[in-house]
Amino acid sequence: MDFLLGLFSRLTGNEELARILFISVIGFSTVLAVIAVMLLVLGLQDPVQRRLALIKRGHLGNAVGQEAPGNLQLLLERVGQRFASAESTKTSVTRTLLMHAGYRSSSAVQMYWAVRLMLPLLLIGLVLLLLPFIPKVSLMIGLLLVLMASGIGWLLPALYVSKRKEARQNRLRVAFPDALDLMVVCVESGLALPTTIERVAEEMSVSHVELAEELAQVNAQIRAGITSTEALKQLAVRTGLDDVQGLVSLLAQSIRFGTSVADTLRIYADEFRDRRTQAAEEAGAKIGTKLIFPLIFCLWPSFFLVAIGPALIGVFRAFG
User: What are the Type II secretion system protein GspF domain coordinates in residue numbering (predicted)?
Assistant: First the structure.
């Protein structure tokens, strides 16, 4: 408290005015925080409000295997609904990003914005609590630390979601060749495309869980009445992979013009193998360039130290 009061005194230049300003800010912030927490918690504890919140997020209380969300999750969803962007374009981009990262619930966008809004506030509060324990901190450094904490809190969830998206797409990209080979075998054995997708999903449920879940969802959509072409297009949208988009385009043309699905899958499998070989050759060609940094900064200094070090020591002793 004394540290914050000293900051206010240096900012205003008047100790009495700094005390009044400090007390006013603390009191006003406390009143607002208490009122906000009371309204949110009381609203979530009300059975009618809780039931409405569950209905809005698509939760059915009598569904088997579903667990009702807790008050904390509903609280974050409500905060996200208050501050989420009203622009449909930005909301669609955020939902697509979360979908590619594996977050597909109806409240994923609200939870994402709630975390991005509340994490900077938590980090700012933590910095303000730790500032009195840091000796000789000026006002400018304190403001800089607060700004850095708010920036980190705002960017950290976005970076986490982006990294999770990249990792998930890499796992799907690695699993896609195996699924493609299994689809070729199943189609050539006489199975229809929906049955092929179901069989491949069952076979890959242990080794590649995420791709198996995607294929199982495609099969469920086909059984629900959605056409195979539309279900495959939604698979390409959910994964965000160019390889899947190319396969979907080829299968859509094959279904539309009545050509053999087995031939289409075999041709795409061959093209995908060639593409994978080219990617491996490209990665191998980049190794020489990537080795420049460790060679110059790690290996060469140690080599020169071992090779020239004794001679330099002898020279220094001779001309010492």
Answer: 180-307
Evaluated on CA atoms 81, 83, 88, 94, the torsion sign reads negative
**Averaged pLDDT for residues 49-77:** 52
> Containing domain of residue 197, as a range?
168-283
**pLDDT band at residue 45 using 50, 70 and 90 as cut-offs:** low
Phi, psi of 190 (to 5 degrees): 110, 5
- Domain for residue 317, yes or no? no
Is 316 domain-assigned? no
**How many domains are there within the chain?**
2
Specify whether 88 is located in the same domain as 109.
Answer: yes
Q: Are residues 75 and 153 in the same domain?
A: yes
Q: Give residue 11's identity as a one-letter amino acid code.
A: L
Question: What is the Cβ-side half-sphere exposure of residue 307, based on CA atoms within 13 angstroms?
Answer: 6
Nearest to 169 by CA among 132, 210, 203: 210
pLDDT at 41: 60
The domain boundary, picked from 102, 136, 165, lies at: 165
Average pLDDT over the chain, rounded to an integer: 77
**pLDDT greater than 60 at residue 73:** no
Q: Which two tokens stand for residue 195?
A: 């049955």
Residues 143 and 19 in one domain: yes
292 within domain boundaries? no
Residue 41 token pair: 């918690």
- Does residue 129 form part of some domain? yes
